[in-house]
């Protein structure tokens, strides 16, 4: 496959061809998140609370898979842009080996720690039991998730977004169909309750990986997994982790944030923990499509940067920023117009719905400005600038929001926590602009020095 189109095709059509398949697949993925939670909520409010408490650990697993995958993706794209196919194959092979090691370690650790982790946030034996039952099955598929994400990033690195779209959509649709069947025991399926939700998710993820593997062997892409590169090279491992670790931390920080906010909100009522959990399910419908645009942008920026096309890098960043902004505008409008109806999908308790309405309206105020930090962080990862990207995420998920939420909660209760979201997004947007353009200036100076 000739991937020089990444530096030759006009920028706007190029971005659309790379991002629209990912946006579509992310929309389906976000729909799965909402439907999955909807059916779990039909079991009981305790089941939904358990799912909310398990979510940070699930997010951490995804963060490690996707974050390290971003490192693999960026390194491959940079080498392809520079015309070094052997190094690209080496990065792909050793990236896969390391990803499999990550998967095995996380499977054991996450299943082992769950009872103690859940006990940190609730004293309800029912919630803890439901959370453990769900997580044991869900986390048994960790290796499959990690390897699937690795192949996703390989296909994206060469610009093959259609395969990624088809694989993700097939997995998500399978999950959506199996959810009610396995939870409530429709047709030939046994009634499994909350375990059925976990199993449906795992089967969908296994199907996604199976499609990647079939396509990889039937229609080989430009990058290959080669036996000769299996033995790890210190230089390549350092390069992969130099991008992968910051990218992983970028994605793992929301888990830390959710756990910290759960601890703050637990002092007031478990209702607010449920509201926060529902919000994080709903916000995937906004942020996953935006993430789809960023996923399409990363290999484009990496390839063009590796090829010395700095003007195109700038054009790609600005167009993607506008596209992300449009999605965030839509999210803001939805949260302002129908917050009660959205909360009503997951609970019928009037007090919870009213608390959720307030939360969605306040948090939604920060969506539009968050496009700046989301786009800047993704662009920096595409450039191989993992540390500046991590700095943005630290501000967004730890440095600003946690102390702000704590202080405001002492003044205004749970409402103070919701206000911390938009305040943080505004501050982080300003920091993001400064960090991004400083990193770009340093990169261009480095390139000109090499020349």
Short structural description:
Keywords: Antiport, Cell membrane, Ion transport, Membrane, Transmembrane, Transmembrane helix, Transport. The protein is mainly alpha-helical and 451 residues long.
Radius of gyration: 21 Å
Globally, the shape reads globular
| Average of per-residue pLDDT values | 89
Helix content: over 70%
Contiguous helical run count:
18
Unreliable runs: none
InterPro entries: MATE_fam, MATE_MdtK, MdtK-like
Membrane topology: Multi-pass membrane protein
Transmembrane segments: 12-35, 60-83, 95-118, 130-151, 163-186, 198-219, 240-265, 271-290, 319-339, 359-383, 390-412, 418-437
Pfam families: MatE
Indicate the topology:
Layout: H1 5-8, H2 11-43, H3 45-81, H4 85-119, H5 125-139, H6 142-157, H7 161-184, H8 194-218, H9 234-266, H10 270-282, H11 284-306, H12 310-337, H13 339-343, H14 350-363, H15 367-382, H16 386-399, H17 401-412, H18 414-450
Structure in words:
The chain is built from 18 helices and no strands. Helix 9 runs parallel beside helix 17. It is mostly helical. Belongs to the multi antimicrobial extrusion (MATE) (TC 2.A.66.1) family. It is found in: Cell membrane. Keywords: Antiport, Cell membrane, Ion transport, Membrane, Transmembrane, Transmembrane helix, Transport. It is a multi-pass membrane protein.
